[in-house]
Amino acid sequence: QVQLVESGGGLVQAGGSLRLSCAASGSAFNTYAMGWYRQSPGKQRELVAIIGSGGSTKYTAPVKGRFTISRDNVKNTVYLQMNNLKVEDTGVYYCTKAVWPSGTPFPSWGQGTQVTVSS
User: Fold this and answer.
1) What is the DSSP letter of 1?
2) Residues 6 or more apart in contact with residue 95 via CB below 8 angstroms
3) What is the pLDDT of residues 1-47, one digit of tens each?
């Protein structure tokens, strides 16, 4: 079972940037897709971005053009660069192994990292 540790969240003003990291344990990291998800206050957890094993990416409409997902298969780490942050990006961000291209997550979650965007 993959263990995941997210980091990089924090408090930022609207228009600012953050870079989230997700370190994954275990082998074969380079063989599966990884997704970033967020849970905003009062809402269900939702997919934000997914990256396939070959590096292909997909984004949900609200973040397209502002967020970039990437991966380092040597470090077993996936990143989420978030630019031009908006108040509605506030939430707890999680990463996990996912099904490409649907983004259906595997049921194994880390503790998440809180992102708070102030106006």
Assistant:
1) -
2) 4, 6, 20, 22, 24, 34, 35, 36, 37, 78, 80, 110
3) 779 999 999 999 999 999 999 999 988 999 999 999 999 989 999 99
